[in-house]
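Help! Submission page says 'invalid entity' but I think these are all valid:
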Amino acid sequence: MAGLSDTFVVVAVLAYLVAMIGHAAEYAFGTRGAVARAAALVPSGGPLPGADPEPGSPPQPGGGRAALIGRGAVAMLVVGVAAHAVAVLTRGLAAERVPWGNMYEFVLSASLVGSVAWLFVLRRWPATRHLGLYVALANVVLLGIAGLWLYVPVGPLVAALNSYWLVIHVAAAALSSGIFLVGFVAAAMYLIKTGYDERGKRGFPYTLAPRLPGAETLERLSFRLHAFGFPIWTFAALIAGPIWAEAAWGRYWGWDPKEVWAFISWVVYAAYLHARATPSVKRTTAAWLAVAGWVTMLMNLFGVNLLFEGLHSYAGL
Amino acid sequence: MLIRLAASARNGWRQLTSMRTALMLLFLLALAAIPGSVLPQRSVSIEEVNAYFVERPDLAPVLDRLGGFDVYGSPWFSAIYLLLFVSLVGCVVPRLRDHLRSLRRAPVDAPRRLSRLPQHADQLAYSAPPAAAAEALRAGLRSRRWRAVVRGADAGPVTVSAEKGYLKETGNLLMHFAMLAVLVGVALGATLGWHGNTLVVAGPDHRFCNVLQQYDEFGLGTRAGAGSLPPFCFTLTDFDAEFTEGGQPTAFLAHGEVSEGGGDPRPVEFTVNSPLRLDGASVYLLGNGYAPVLRYTDRFGETQTSTTPFLPSDPQGTAQGVATFPDANVDPAGGGERDPSLQVAFQGLYLPTAPAEGPLVGSVHPEERAPTLFLQAFRGDLGIDSGTPQSVLELNQAQLDSGELAPVGEAVFLAPGETMTLADETTVEFVGTQRWVTISVRHDPGQPVALVGIGLLLAGLVGSLVGRRRRVWFRVTADPATPGHSLVEAAGLPRSDYSGFATEFSHLLAALPLTPIPDSELQPAGRST
Ligand code: HEM
């Protein structure tokens, strides 16, 4: 079973890679094709495409080699997510516990949440399909790091982690991390789009802009995801975490490096929501805060475990 | 002068309580929190701070003066969050006042030109005179949980104003106020809370009672004192640990007896993640290990026993420690006077599971499968009387250097029950081991307050994020073409970011008993306002 999980991780990485190449090819072929039309279909200032549940919403762009490749890439991404899910599931079955007992497993599970969140986004807002490139890329990178540097064989939990709060706290953290990941992609694309449209930037990565959905769509999508992820993060980092910390270490908050960075992420995302609610603050400023928020999340996931010695350090590595 | 001062104060206050300032302060708070994860913190690990001072003797004092080792209690960190909270109060209190007022007041009257609003529909009819129609609309809105009010008389146009989504502002205010509650909870903990850490060896001889003197280390809140500690005593009776073959711990369980407030002892159990909850204190299991028991028989035939906790230095349980016998070799005939040159100590390395072959340098499993004690005897002046603090781990280095304390004989490996005989014919027996645990005893009366606060914060946050404030208006006029009937114009305005409002608006119109006027009946100009 453990071997099966490892195999499926490899399958997932390969499928994500193919999906990534497919999306990239779609970019390459779609200069004046379906992609551009898809982008043009998104009325700037209007509601999100697909948000309107009425039948007869605008037909999806079809036809052309690029669109075909694009659809193939999405299919490959779905295959990747399926393999990814099987990998997580079999890992849990092999260990006879929740599959997030160490850092390897946490990255595996959190990135799966991100992928699944992405599939939901894709279903509701098909015009954002091209962001799949970045979702696939992020997954390849995350699973690659996990497989190469974080891998640990299946084993039982260390006594310190043996608590049902592991299930609750870490599941909430993984869930919100996955959602923030997709929100970050949307925020970054929004910055690229506005940089291209409004400030005349033409270098990389702004060259991607013509093939992106409308700026407004990206911004709204980013906000929705962050607004969805933020309460879950609040629960994970400021409620479930402290309750567990109280039971385990006797104090609900002790400024352990992991706690510090969880707090920083929370404050930065709160600042993002504030910025977005303040009329005099530009939407791009808010988007930069979302990007900063994701950087702090990465810092917490990788930086803290690798750089600092703390109570959370036993979490595998 | 005073007026100008007052004006600039008012201006400053307005600045401080603006959303932009709040945003800046939030961002600053995030930045200010970073150094606390990079530099070791006193509140987290005093040992690491001390080590930092040793490593960077020139930099450390400077950082220390800047509060670098105490970031979350430093003046600058406190200044940021206190400013933020002042800003919060200044921002939220007026909003609360406005919100309470708007909750009591009827929804605002319809704007003059409904057609300017984002949602608008005007070819609607109702088969009743305006007053009755408006009343029916109001009832329909009410049943859909809109707050609705009818204005105007039958003579002129009648309007229905309705509003929904007060949850958003209610939730938002609740969230911001809840932050204050969390702060109160934290402050309560800092003033009235206390904690102490200690090591407890198994057995009735090593009973622990909850008084400050029995702690190795403790911290009291600014308004907590010795009297804050509830009286209880605890005896460790047994300790179970389970490990994988690789030596990874999978379960711990401490068994003991507790008597609270002088009551009868009762059996208790606690473990990692599941502390012992007592009245006014909780006991947390932090660490564990073995304490070798040594029985030393001196040259006068006197026997003394010491149980010394050895501190583990690796995950496989290899532990080291020092057992001292300062009262050894006291001549019973000499009036009990100590002879400092004849004090005895043993420095040891304990291996719960010694490797079956190869050098015996470290344990290979944390369970006691092949317990072996590697013991080196020392004789001489332990330096205890000189007043310098003693380490439980090491012998007094100054005494060793001066030669006043010196090793005697070769180090020996002992299994439980084995005895080693020293050159002076005295003997030491490795009797066996006792388990020990390190515990933290704590009480934080602010905890429930902080928990309720953060729970309300989350509830308010969800309300604030899902709530959508929106208004609709209906203007009802008598239908000049069909007496006893009305014409209705409707409009809607989402007051917060809400892309689904158009759909909701059309559903609302469909659900209310309004009938669109068939095109054939429309007169080119007369019907619309
Ligand atoms: C302790 C620091 C603070 C934190 C962590 C915080 C957090 C938040 C969060 C997470 C939101 C988003 C909820 C939502 O959009 O509905 C929010 C909204 C808001 N905050 Fe704060 N806040 C803080 C201080 C302040 C201060 C000082 C002010 C006033 C200057 C303020 C005014 C507002 C307002 C007006 C909104 C509503 C925006 C909207 O219309 O949606 N907050 N706050």
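Support: the input was valid. A stray whitespace character was the problem, and the output above is from the cleaned input. The pocket of protoporphyrin IX containing FE is lined by residues A 270, 273-274, 277; B 17-19, 22, 26, 84, 87-88, 91, 172, 176, 179, 464-465 (CB under 6 Å).
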